[in-house]
Design goal:
Elements: H1 2-7, H2 9-22, H3 26-31, H4 34-50, H5 55-62, H6 66-79, E1 82-87, E2 92-97
Helix pairs in contact: 2-4, 4-6, 5-6
Length: 98
């Protein structure tokens, strides 16, 4: 299943959702590649964070607690390259992580 999930973004997101929702259920753990799920979660949170969504918005979209999302955002800030990009609407720069 992991190879199929890797090739299909929508299926990967659904598998990630299932993993998060039922992660302690042995049946789900057999079907979801945990490393892939973690990578998808990390990248999705980074995408939402870079787009300017608040911690609460990200938490609701990912269906994780704000504490967990906050921890992952801290990890993103440590591990990813920081870049300033112009925000033409506000005439300022904002920080994104690559």
């Amino acid at each position: 299943m992991a190879k199929t999930v890797d090739k299909d973004d929508e299926l990967r997101e659904y598998a990630t959702y299932l993993y998060l929702k039922y992660r302690d259920t042995p049946e789900i753990n057999k079907r979801v590649d945990i490393d892939t799920a973690k990578k998808v979660i990390f990248n999705k949170i980074k995408e939402y964070f870079n787009s300017g969504k608040s911690l609460t918005e990200i938490s609701l979209k990912i269906d994780l607690s704000e504490k967990i999302v906050s921890g992952i955002i801290m990890q993103i800030k440590k591990e990813c390259t920081e870049r300033k990009v112009p925000d033409y609407k506000n005439g300022t720069y904002r920080t994104i992580y690559l």
